[in-house]
Amino acid sequence: MTTSHTSHAPHASQAEHAHHATTLVIGAAGTTGRRVTAGLIAEGRRVKAAGRAPTPQPGAQSVRFDWNEPATWAGALDGVDRVYLIPPTGSPDPAGVMLPFLRQARAAGVCRAVLLSSSAIPAGGPAVGRVHEQLPALFEEWAVLRPSWFMQNFAGSAPHARTIREHGTILTASGDGRVGFVDAEDIAAVAVRALTDDQAPNTDLVLTGPQTLSYADAAAIIAEATGRPVVHRQLTFEELRDRWAAEIPLEFATMLAAMDRAIADGAEDRTSDAVERLTGRPPGTFRAFVEREVRTAAHD
């Protein structure tokens, strides 16, 4: 039956393409990566879950991937047409490894790339800002997610969570500066839309929660929800830098401390409607996050 000229053919092929689309999720065991993987699988999408030590995830194909081992790239890219990009952790120059990978990805048939960056880093800015700048030239379909500070920084094994548990303190050099803390669940929900919607965003998206809070506000909400005293303790830029430098390279420690100084100067005092615009639901509140991920842990 040769009905290849019917008007339905293009739609059928688009639907078929969407069905066969495979997304490579880099950093699939991480804070956003595991949530993006779960979100894609929940929508019936094919996922290759990539990491240095492949972690099995229900419904996904695990694949080994290391930014610093280009030999792992081709296998990860095999059969993939879209990719969620988590930059290499702690690298002051992620573009050095990411751009060669992205050129290889394009050559391998990847048509859509969604990059996790930061609200603090514009296109052409430091670190991942250089990758952001190049993305539109590499892929016709793209998005850069620029979330504000993660609410998850106060949970699990994150540094703030550690000092809250051990000393009842949150240590920053951010003064009374306010931050539009955003839930990783919302970042992942936006990523899933950016990866799967018929039309890619083709822009960068600043992602925030519904309100801005100072670290003192955050401490008060955590104290109220957990019933334990938590306070925000102010450090100077130098104190914070030296504290970080005990654990990570000085250049990176200086960059993190500078980000706190920018918060003090008001750089993060903003909210955006991007989460609601892309997902159709308002972003989660800090209080809801604390009740879900911090309060339960405090009483374990």
Can you offer a commentary on this structure?
- There is one protein chain.
- The protein is of the alpha/beta class and 300 residues long.
- 42% of the residues lie in helices and 16% in strands.
- The protein has 12 helices and 11 strands.
- The protein has helices at residues 9-20, 33-42, 73-77, 95-107, 129-138, 159-167, 184-196, 215-226, 237-245, 250-264, 274-279, 286-298, and strands at 22-26, 46-51, 61-64, 82-85, 112-116, 141-147, 169-172, 178-179, 204-207, 213-214, 231-234.
- Strands 3-2-1-4-5-6-9 form a 7-stranded parallel β-sheet, with helices on both faces.
Order of helices and strands: HEHEEHEHEHEHEEHEEHEHHHH
Unreliable stretches: 1-17
The number of distinct helices, counting runs of at least 4 residues, comes to: 12
How much of the sequence is in beta strands?
15-25%
Residue-averaged pLDDT:
91
Query: Strand pairing plus helix content: what structural class?
Result: alpha/beta
Strand arrangement within the widest β-sheet reads 3-2-1-4-5-6-9
Helix content: 40-55%
Give the biggest sheet. Answer: 7 strands, parallel
The end-to-end distance, rounded to whole angstroms, is 65 Å
Q: How many strand elements?
A: 11
Radius of gyration, whole Å: 20 Å
Q: Outline, from the CA principal axes?
A: globular
